[in-house]
Amino acid sequence: MKYQVILEHSEEGVAASVPCLPGCHSQGSTEQEALRNIAEAIADYLAVVKELTKDKIVKEVEVPEEHVA
User: Fold this and answer.
1) Rounded to two decimals, what is the model's pTM?
2) What is the four-CA torsion angle of 15, 42, 5, 17, rounded to 10 degrees?
3) Cα–Cα distance between 46 and 13 in angstroms, integer?
4) Which InterPro entries does this entry report, sorted A to Z (predicted)?
5) CA of 21: how far to CAs of 1, 10, 11, 34, in Å?
6) pLDDT of amino acid 69
């Protein structure tokens, strides 16, 4: 699965966030490290979502491409 990631460079390194996963952030000293770290953060985020929804009714809804920013 692919996610859009926003990278922001600063004097401290590179911050990474995932707009479609609120609160999913990470960082690294290089862009490559930030991308590795955010991939791990995404996996951890999704594991928590899976745990929180395990006893819930979950459905998927398709959104037409023209409505996706």
Assistant:
1) 0.85
2) -40
3) 25
4) HicB-like, TA_system_antitoxin, TTHA1013/TTHA0281-like
5) 13, 22, 25, 16
6) 63
